[in-house]
Amino acid sequence: MNILQIISGGISAYKAVDITSNLVKKNHNVKIILTKNATKFITELTFQTISKNKVYTDTFEEINETEIQHIDLVKWADKIIIAPATANIIAKIANGIADDLSSSLMLAVKDFSKVYIAPAMNTAMYENPITQSNIFKLKQLGFNFIEPDSGLLACGDVGKGKLPSSEDILSAVLNNNLLAGKKVLVTAGSTKEYIDPVRYISNPSSGKMGIAIAEEFAKNGADVSLITSADYISEMKNITVIPIISAHDMFVAVKKEFEDADIIIKAAAVSDYKPIITYDKKVKKQVGNIEIELERTEDILYYLGQRKKENQFLIGFAAETNDIINYAKEKIKKKNLDYIIANDVSKKEIGFGSDNNEVYIIDKYNNINKIDKTSKRNIAKQIVNMFL
Ligand SMILES: Cc1cc2nc3c(=O)[nH]c(=O)nc-3n(C[C@H](O)[C@H](O)[C@H](O)COP(=O)(O)O)c2cc1C
């Protein structure tokens, strides 16, 4: 495979040699671009020796007069890896800035899915809402991201921002197994709150959205636990289906699975209320009205938001009939979510039971991406893309 490796000017640039070396050992043809600032951390000669190819150092020298470097390198590459990717290069790509070879070249990329970006930087730079908003934008466009590791950083801080090992980067790029080793918990479908053995309170959620999400995560190598009331049998080895009936069953199952999950997606439409009394024999028809007293079920999303660890991502859904975005933004704060997927369930042709939906993906920094009406499968792909 032809692989273009871009190395930008971060302290972990020296680790990029290992990535090149491993790619060459696996018989890939690797061409290297060092940004001007990367050359302050590592040398052209090292990469030239290891890759056995000419190294481009972000100058616009035309090596071959029939070539226009930034266009031809993109056409040549089957895959493009940016590792380490500085906050700067990510910002430039996200904003279409093309002021050197690497960034000009990135603007010439047509198929974003062939690009793998491995951000590495100080935690404050990584968590800065500006960097996060750039990453969000690129993920939504289809760029793949390899999440940084947490640990002791070169600056002495402890936090997220370390370049992952070259094995992890290679496995992500070469196997398209970007989520291997990740545990994902998905909930899907409605819950049933029984009044008596033959009657219950529920809603029309089919579970299609959550099931599509579970399958898309599994396709990318994640280990998925799917907690659902839907009648669903998985054909994928890495999906474990945990059947539930009521909101309380869901709560018990989620509590059990939540601890070691990396990503939690609550796509189920959980009943907010349940009958205080569930009769064990069928309630007989009587003359006149009857009253059923309801009590609140456990607020599972709130429970998770309160206990979420730093490395866990929590995603909720908001099914609303009006003022969707404002309710969703409120919910993101109240429940301490990382993302919320909001949809308008008042529209008959989308939402509950339908194969299609139209949603807004909103992150905790209030970045919003609207996904126009499309299949739930496509929406699931976009959601999973946020973690690639
Ligand atoms: C010692 C040192 C280490 C740096 N490490 C990083 C880093 O790990 N990640 C990052 O995003 N920027 C880092 N920077 C800042 C970048 O070098 C700077 O933003 C530069 O403009 C990046 O240029 P480039 O993206 O064109 O390579 C570092 C700067 C210095 C002086």
Question: Would you mind describing this structure in some detail?
Answer:
By secondary structure, the protein is of the alpha/beta class. It folds into 2 domains: 2-175, 3-Layer(aba) Sandwich (Rossmann fold); 183-385, CoaB-like (Rossmann fold). Helices cover 31% and strands 26% of the residues. The protein is built from 13 helices and 20 strands. The chain has helices at residues 16-25, 44-51, 69-76, 87-94, 101-107, 123-127, 129-141, 166-175, 208-219, 247-258, 300-307, 324-334, 376-385; strands at 2-7, 29-34, 55-56, 79-85, 115-119, 144-145, 149-152, 158-162, 183-188, 193-196, 199-201, 223-228, 239-243, 263-266, 273-275, 294-296, 313-320, 339-344, 356-363, 368-375. It has an 8-stranded mixed beta sheet with strand order 13-12-9-14-17-18-19-20, with helices on both faces. Strands 3-2-1-4-5-6 form a 6-stranded parallel beta sheet, sandwiched between helices. It is elongated. The model has no long low-confidence stretch (mean pLDDT 91). Flavin mononucleotide (FMN) is lined by residues 8-12, 35, 37-38, 86-89, 120-121, 125.
